[in-house]
């Protein structure tokens, strides 16, 4: 189906309003993660770190929470312009209509399965749109950066830790 000019204009206006709203939400610069952003990041961590996370539900929940805390620290350490861009991405992913249109996830993040979130991430990773690949890369790097910033995760990859005695 080819959209009419009127539908195209309405969609463009709706998208512009949605992006403006997300920008307005994140205009304050450095800030704390909202509960909805934490839920979204928790769902992403569960999918991206599948296989590395413990199977025990409570231990898994704790490890995901620590990783989300690490992402918050990483984002706070970025330049304000990068924080704003990440905030806009997070803002889009937590809004239900945008989450469904961009990620294809119809359920709230806390209810989405690891498989559903994994499919969304893979679709962005393999997208022909550079913007979605870049967004995937940012989510990937933030997640794995926060995960491997914790010394207790180093054994899994054989990393002995930073050199000692040189500083």
TrEMBL record:
Top-rank lineage group of the source organism: Bacteria
* Name of the protein described by the UniProt record: Twin-arginine translocation pathway signal
Q: Which organism is it from?
A: Candidatus Accumulibacter contiguus
